[in-house]
Amino acid sequence: MPDPITAPYIERYIDSLLPPRDPLLAEVEAHAREQRLPIVGPAEGRFLSLLAQLYRPQRILELGCCTGYSALWLAAATEGTGATIETVELDAQRAEVAAANFRKSPHGERITLRRGNALEILPGLAAGAYDLVFNDLLRSGAGESGGVPHQVQFLEHSVRLLKAGGVLLSDNVLCGGQVAEDAPTGTAAGIAEYNRRLFQHPDLETALVPVRDGVAISLKRP
Ligand SMILES: C[S@@+](CC[C@H](N)C(=O)[O-])C[C@H]1O[C@@H](n2cnc3c(N)ncnc32)[C@H](O)[C@@H]1O
Predict the structure, then answer these.
(1) Chain segment 19-36, per-residue pLDDT in tens
(2) What is the mean pLDDT of residues 118-143?
(3) Pick the CATH number of 8-220 from 3.40.50.800, 3.40.50.150, 1.10.3860.10, 3.40.50.2300
(4) Residue 93 class from Cβ within 10 Å (0-12 exposed, 13-18 middle, 19+ buried)?
């Protein structure tokens, strides 16, 4: 997990309030701790879960699956609604672990794992098809293409894929606080540009919540 932007004692306090997770989520968390994998963690998992319960999306697209932790939270949050979750993962080993986790989950049948590079997969998905897009690829090292940071490309894809009235959740928008520096570089510069565009986009209304590494919530205007 990235360094939290909130003081560690506050993070510990928030974590101490959380009820125990179900055995599968607890197992995926423990594995991520051991392997130092960048999953959202329980406090943000619960935040995503609550947003999904409030918004009640039917089709969810997640960019960045890792071993399936956040997808499992979203699937549990939409239990009984018939909602589907599609999630994309580039790393073959992580995708294998995610697929095994989905097989163990009572919600696994509603989750589709798309293996490969999101930059190649997203252009093939139908415009306006999703009620909720969770972008967890901002700190990934996909790099630039034609001088456009990958973060900006993910924003353009996400807006195209969302239906009017849909919600885009973007993780790691504070990038450990580096986006607030005078002249961020590398990944932080790409995320700072993403944030600028997110807030200025004519089709989006955005708020930034400083939970964990920063989550932006954007509504695609109807
Ligand atoms: C922050 S992690 C996702 C964590 C996950 N959402 C969770 O909380 O359980 C980002 C994941 O995206 C994957 N990834 C990086 N670049 C990618 C790309 N271009 N396309 C698809 N997946 C990518 C990484 O291998 C990594 O597992």
Answers:
(1) 999 999 999 999 999 999
(2) 92
(3) 3.40.50.150
(4) exposed
